[in-house]
Amino acid sequence: MTRKILVIGGAGFIGSHLVDDLVALGHEVIVYDSLEPQVHGNITKQPNYLSEDIKFIKNDIRNKEALVEILNDVEVVFHLAAMVGVAQSMYQIDKYVDVNVLGTARFLDILVNNAHDIKKLIVASSMSTYGEGAYKCSSCGEISPKLRNTAQLEKGVWELNCPICGKKAVPIPTNEEKPQDCTSIYALTKKEQEKMSLLIGETYGIDTTALRLFNVYGSRQALSNPYTGVCAIFSSSLLSNNAPTIYEDGNQSRDFIHVKDICQAFLLSMEKEQARNEVFNVGTANPISIKEIAEILAKLINPNITPIFTNQFRPGDIRHCFSDISKISSNLGFKPQYTFEVGMKELVEWVKTQKDIALDKSATAIKQLKEKGLLK
Ligand SMILES: NC(=O)c1ccc[n+]([C@@H]2O[C@H](COP(=O)([O-])OP(=O)(O)OC[C@H]3O[C@@H](n4cnc5c(N)ncnc54)[C@H](O)[C@@H]3O)[C@@H](O)[C@H]2O)c1
Ligand SMILES: [Zn+2]
């Protein structure tokens, strides 16, 4: 069935891939996006990679009047608009809360107070809302340790211990029941986006789904934005003949998922009744270390370069978090299709086409973090 669908933040990395899939399925798609300069540079029209078979509106999610105008007959809304830099959010507090929280509030306000035909809302939440992932202790069982403190990190003790008995804490898959324990303003704003959307959805009978995305990689992730996406940051350094900088000892791990697998989860959430008013993790369930990522990317993009280990750290960084995807697998039939090898090869093919436009701004970002005491 063809539907009229609005994708807020649809000009971005994940949104644009989702738009491709929606167009291919024959839906009528409107993309509403402010073209945030940090992501898109100074363009005023839709980015070249975005499908031509859509209606594009350049505007801000906080502009209620402009949003109201385009909602006629829209049945489904995907909300992906956000400022997305975790560390940056710790010194641009006002902007992150304004765009991510107030922006979402403005949109939800329309759902409640204006006439519309929206029946389904899907919001992009984040694994960052968990803080540290789940761990277990051989004596105490499943545990949820807090962030490592600065004194520990200054000694180069990177791994976590059990908060109850002090034994080594072993990372295990994180499921949706793990309490959310946000350790950045960005994470807090993502949690607010998720909670506000589900609350309003449930209260007013609008079918709402929140997807907690793990670390997404793939083509079109802004190589010029040094504040987000470790694959994109490492890739742009390597393209510019600079060594990627690895914090801690590189053995910290994350769950990297290909953007097309994320799209699969968005589409299932739109189609399946079982997604109604639910939260799902979207990851691969496989942890990969940051060191491995840097080494693989270096080998594939610029083999002459070896990543630098600085033993520096960012207070507030988590050590390990990878997904338990049993809920979305059993409820929606989600199954990631991309192996890490295939996904990385595809990413690198795209990265190489960006050689002339990619700008390695990581040095500027590192300088800013140091000035603010966010990198030690
Ligand atoms: N990339 C990841 O690893 C990841 C992980 C978890 C969650 N997410 C979430 O997924 C969503 C998409 O992220 P992405 O990686 O594609 O980032 P992105 O920066 O490429 O896309 C975000 C889009 O939102 C737009 N935007 C920003 N502020 C806006 C505003 N005020 N009004 C309208 N549009 C605005 C930007 O111009 C951009 O096109 C975000 O909500 C992000 O928090 C991403
Ligand atoms: Zn213990």
Defining key terms:
376 residues; alpha/beta; Rossmann fold; seven-stranded parallel sheet; three-stranded antiparallel sheet; globular; binds nicotinamide-adenine-dinucleotide; binds zinc ion
Q: Mind explaining what this structure looks like?
A:
This protein starts with a strand and ends in a 5-residue tail after the last helix. The protein contains 12 helices and 16 strands. The protein folds into 2 domains: 4-134 and 173-371, NAD(P)-binding Rossmann-like Domain (Rossmann fold, 3-Layer(aba) Sandwich), CATH 3.40.50.720; 135-172, no CATH class. The strands form 5 sheets. The protein has a 7-stranded parallel β-sheet, with helices on both faces. Strands 7-6-8 form a 3-stranded antiparallel β-sheet, with no helix packed on it. Strands 10-13 form a two-stranded parallel ribbon. By secondary structure, the chain is of the alpha/beta class. The protein has helices at residues 13-24, 37-40, 64-69, 93-113, 150-154, 185-204, 230-239, 259-271, 290-301, 326-332, 340-353, 362-371, and strands spanning 4-8, 28-33, 55-58, 76-79, 120-126, 135-137, 141-143, 170-171, 207-213, 215-217, 245-246, 253-254, 256-258, 278-282, 288-289, 308-309. It is globular. The longest helix is centred in the first third of the chain and has 21 residues, at 93-113. The structure holds nicotinamide-adenine-dinucleotide (NAD) and zinc ion. The site of nicotinamide-adenine-dinucleotide has 30 residues, from helix 1, helix 2, helix 4, strand 5 and strand 10.
